[in-house]
């Protein structure tokens, strides 16, 4: 099942893709000793926001070089102002999602947003310099003109980047799997064949629920998880297009986990009339040949994840320094109350199912390794000392995990990590539990601020964790941290 074995149709109507079914076998490059994963990674470079960042920064620098002749003809603009202007502009653009990968980007559609975001730093820059030197005072319309010029330059640069990306995507499309069945799946498949500028070449159709019935021979229909896994690896699949929202069953969770492990971009095509109605009227939304589409892999945005990691490192480092006296007091209390062994180490499962060693202050008497890995801990454990109970109630036993955050094992905010034994057990019993590992695990999370901690419903925790992942943003992390701090002050630990 390779991209070469499924030629594009010549019909101009994207209704049904009628192609001979390709077979499942490794691409030619793999036979020559060159793994397909490498080409997958090389083609993924065009999805990075570097070119857009350069276009926006160039527009800001050029405007800053030309605007002083109009705004401040009697004063020299300090060259150091370039750095804060470009940095502030980049942060605003990332916040508004201007660096997210889109299937149908439009520079003209981005122009109003670019103009609005350019005005804020220009007025801030003008007000700052005017407060220091009256020579920088200008009429209120002047910064707006500078912002307009910068927005036009950025729009032109972005248009060039979008055009270059579309041409590169058409020349080297990445393999894609269409997940679903029925007319919408057929129409999406045909649209991807007819329009290679989306950068996808369908190589298979996934029907995990076996609901498609008799299928016309257009693409190989993959039902078993091992067939999907083999297809993803052999064809270096880079995209998965869901034609209906993923279910809450273990099959959908396993699919999402599989695509996440192989760095596939996951898209949801809203093909029902209800979905189209909710999508209509929302400016800047993405589409795939008329079908509203949105990414499902919100946790895989490299630029946003870099911001999350930077926030984690800064806040964890500050918290460790500020909490050093508290850490010392807690360590001394554990040593005096429970004896040697202040730090409790335990294997937990993190991002993409990778194990790591979690650190906590010890709150109960030592147990053997098997019991530690398989016994469910509750707040009323009789072996818990007074010190351990106090640490649990105040959540101070979690403070050593700040070191896990600095090491990159965890994030400040994310689904709580669990032991391998319980991950395997809960993944089998509770639908959607495995999908929690699409995101870095955290010290606190959306489930915890809603009281789901300790001996509470695992199914409800998984529901909140997956909702957090699907709606994730940096601002949501800030809100969760604020609510966590408030709950700690109320002694709301587990």
Automatic annotation (TrEMBL):
Record keywords: Membrane, Transferase, Transmembrane, Transmembrane helix
Transmembrane domains' residue ranges: 51-71, 77-95, 107-124, 136-161, 310-334
Keyword Membrane among UniProt keywords: yes
Family: Belongs to the bacterial sugar transferase family.
Membrane topology (UniProt): Multi-pass membrane protein
Lineage of source species: Bacteria, Bacillati, Actinomycetota, Actinomycetes, Kitasatosporales
Organism: Streptomyces pristinaespiralis (strain ATCC 25486 / DSM 40338 / CBS 914.69 / JCM 4507 / KCC S-0507 / NBRC 13074 / NRRL 2958 / 5647)
One Pfam family of this chain: Bac_transf
Name this polypeptide is given: Transferase
Start and end residues of each stretch annotated as Disordered: 1-45
Subcellular location: Membrane
């Amino acid at each position: 099942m390779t991209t070469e074995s499924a030629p594009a149709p010549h019909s101009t109507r994207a209704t049904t893709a009628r192609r001979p079914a390709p077979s499942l076998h490794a691409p030619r490059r793999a036979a020559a000793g060159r793994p397909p994963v490498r080409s997958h990674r090389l083609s993924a470079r065009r999805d990075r926001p570097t070119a857009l960042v350069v276009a926006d920064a160039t527009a800001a620098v050029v405007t800053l070089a030309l605007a002083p002749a109009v705004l401040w003809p009697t004063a020299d603009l300090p060259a150091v102002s370039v750095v804060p202007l470009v940095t502030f502009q980049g942060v605003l653009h990332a916040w508004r999602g201007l660096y997210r990968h889109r299937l149908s980007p439009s520079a003209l559609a981005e122009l109003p947003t670019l103009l609005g975001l350019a005005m804020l730093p220009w007025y801030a820059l003008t007000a700052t310099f005017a407060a220091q030197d009256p020579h920088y005072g200008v009429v209120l319309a002047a910064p707006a003109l500078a912002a307009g010029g910068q927005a036009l330059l950025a729009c032109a640069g972005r248009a060039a980047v979008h055009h270059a990306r579309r041409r590169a995507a058409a020349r080297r499309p990445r393999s894609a799997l269409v997940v679903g069945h029925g007319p919408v799946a057929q129409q999406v498949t045909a649209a991807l064949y007819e329009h290679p500028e989306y950068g996808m070449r369908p190589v298979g159709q996934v029907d995990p629920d076996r609901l498609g019935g008799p299928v016309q021979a257009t693409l190989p229909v993959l039902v078993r998880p091992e067939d999907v896994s083999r297809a993803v690896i052999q064809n270096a699949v880079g995209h998965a297009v869901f034609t209906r929202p993923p279910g809450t069953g273990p099959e959908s969770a396993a699919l999402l986990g599989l695509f996440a492990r192989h760095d596939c971009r996951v898209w949801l095509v809203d093909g029902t009339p209800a979905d189209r109605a909710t999508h209509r009227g929302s400016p800047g939304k993405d589409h795939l040949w008329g079908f509203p589409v949105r990414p499902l892999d919100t946790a895989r945005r490299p630029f946003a994840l870099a911001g999350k990691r930077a926030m984690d490192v800064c806040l964890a480092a500050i918290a460790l320094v500020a909490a050093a006296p508290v850490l010392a007091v807690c360590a001394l209390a554990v040593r005096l109350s429970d004896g040697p062994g202040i730090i409790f180490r335990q294997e937990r499962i993190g991002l993409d199912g990778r194990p790591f060693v979690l650190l906590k202050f010890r709150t109960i008497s030592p147990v053997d390794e098997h019991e530690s890995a398989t016994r469910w801990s509750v707040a009323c454990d009789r072996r818990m000392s007074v010190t351990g109970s106090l640490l649990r109630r105040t959540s101070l036993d979690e403070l050593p995990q700040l070191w896990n955050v600095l090491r990159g094992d965890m994030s400040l905010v994310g689904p709580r990590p669990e032991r391998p034994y319980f991950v395997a057990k809960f993944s089998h019993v509770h639908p959607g539990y495995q999908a929690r590992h699409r995101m870095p695990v955290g010290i606190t999370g959306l489930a915890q601020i809603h009281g789901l901690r300790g001996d509470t419903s695992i199914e409800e925790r998984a529901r909140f964790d997956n909702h957090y992942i699907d709606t994730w943003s940096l601002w949501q992390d800030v809100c969760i941290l604020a609510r966590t701090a408030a709950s700690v002050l109320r002694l709301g630990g587990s």
